[in-house]
Design a protein that fits this description.
- 12% of the residues lie in helices and 50% in strands.
- Strands 2, 9, 11, 12, 14 and 15 form a six-stranded mixed beta sheet that branches.
- The chain has five helices and 34 strands.
- The longest helix has 30 residues.
- With 415 residues, it is mainly beta.
- It starts with a helix and ends in a 12-residue tail after the last strand.
């Protein structure tokens, strides 16, 4: 009976099951609908790389991925959990490699890859190779006149080049550039090296170890020439109240010519003729000749210019100066306390020695706009050129302004 009933109602049963599944799917989708999202710049990772090979010249380093997933899954999705891999054993050389995009199994349910851009990449895989190549330095420029290049030493003398075999085989040397332009003494410098082929062209896709080398180049003076420092000879005494502030010479050294034996016996300087500074009160310049021994001469025409700097000695002088007023309104009188102030004057001693305190220095109190009462007024000091008032003691003067007694003449403005 049961089997007969099942046979008679199998269609209805299957239809009921199908309708139940459809209803369940619709209900799930309504409660947890799918949506799509983009994840740009997912880095590509190479897997199953053949041993002792190098991967290079990949057409892309990252991919843009679009995923579809249930709404509830998006909270766990991020660029950090998405992997983009290229299986280097999955195809034959010369073909593009497909890119696989995966997410962890724990969140993979319902996640679908909609788009991968690019979907595949081209990449080169070659056996790794290495070789020793010499370090060769290209010297640029010329040393200073009367000098020549001596021995050059490079440390290290050779380096290791590593990379794809087809590229390593092209490298013939590691090269750097070193400027000796205008050099007059030994030079040393650390250089960044480049891998070059036989034609002097840079070779890509390889690395040098080490990437830098240190070159030391000796620069020697040619026999029969020698550089000497210029020594200045001064005589006499500058004017009283002045001091020697400095001496300059241009050039600082000169090149002389003579027999190697004679030049070797010379001291390391050439003295100028005596330069007299007797009574000097200001800077002056002059061309000076050099005191050279017989059979030694200047190389080419070299003029030695000497500049002597003379400046006055700065001194100070403290003097009492009576204060005078300006700007007092008519009908008013002013009482000063104190009536004079001490002024510290600073300037060149020769000027300080000749100053006339009665006429050259004035202390002025400006009473413009002041009315009856007691005021503190800061004095103003007038000094001759080259003299400055460094300080005034006291810094202010008490001025009491009151009505002038009848019959008192109105004070005239101080010029």
């Amino acid at each position: 009976m049961i089997f007969r009933w099942l046979a008679q109602n199998i269609g209805n049963i299957l239809l009921s099951i199908l309708l139940a599944v459809v209803v369940w799917v619709v209900a799930v989708n309504e409660a947890n609908p799918n949506r799509e999202g983009d994840f740009p710049a997912i880095p590509i990772v190479f897997v199953n790389q053949p041993p002792d090979t190098i991967v290079y010249d990949a057409s892309a380093a990252a991919v843009d991925v679009t995923l579809s997933a249930p709404e509830a899954t998006w909270a766990a999705l991020s660029a950090r959990v998405i992997s983009a891999t290229v299986d280097l054993s999955a195809t034959t050389p010369g073909e593009d490699y497909p890119i696989s995009v995966d997410v962890p199994d724990s969140i993979a349910r319902g996640v679908r890859v909609v788009r991968v851009e690019p979907a595949s990449i081209s990449v080169k895989v070659e056996p790794r190779s290495s070789a020793q190549v010499p370090v060769e330095v290209n010297l640029i420029g010329e040393p200073a006149q009367t000098y020549r290049l001596g021995r050059g030493v490079t440390q290290p003398a050779s380096v290791t080049v590593t990379g794809p075999a087809s590229w390593v085989s092209q490298v013939t040397r590691a090269s750097g550039e070193f400027s000796v332009q205008g050099g007059s003494e030994s030079l040393s410098q650390t250089l960044t090296l480049k891998p070059l082929d036989a034609n002097g062209q840079a070779v890509p896709n390889v690395k040098l170890e080490p990437e830098r080398a240190r070159l030391t180049v000796d620069i020697e003076q040619i026999a029969g020439f020698r550089d000497l420092t210029v020594k200045i000879e001064l005589t006499g005494t500058h004017a009283s109240g002045y001091r020697l502030a400095g001496v300059e010479v241009n050039p600082l050294s000169v090149t002389v010519i003579g027999s190697p034996v004679t030049l070797e016996a010379l001291e390391g300087f050439a003295a100028t003729e005596p330069i007299d500074i007797t009574g000097a009160q200001a800077d002056f310049e002059k061309d000076a000749s050099l005191d050279l021994p017989p059979n030694v001469a200047l190389y080419r025409q070299q003029t030695v210019r000497v500049r002597v700097k003379i400046e006055p000695i700065v001194g100070s002088l403290t003097v009492p100066i009576p204060a005078s007023t300006v700007g007092l309104r008519a009908g008013l009188a002013a009482r000063l306390s104190p009536e004079s102030v001490n002024v510290i004057l600073v300037g060149a001693l020769p000027v300080l020695d000749t100053i006339d305190l009665a006429t050259d220095v004035r202390v002025i109190l400006d009473l413009s706009g002041l009315g009856l009462g007691t005021h503190q007024v800061e004095p103003r000091v007038e000094t001759p050129e080259g003299i400055a008032a460094q300080s005034i003691l006291p810094a202010s003067v008490q001025v009491t302004i009151e009505r002038a007694p009848r019959g008192t003449p109105t004070p005239s403005p101080t010029p």
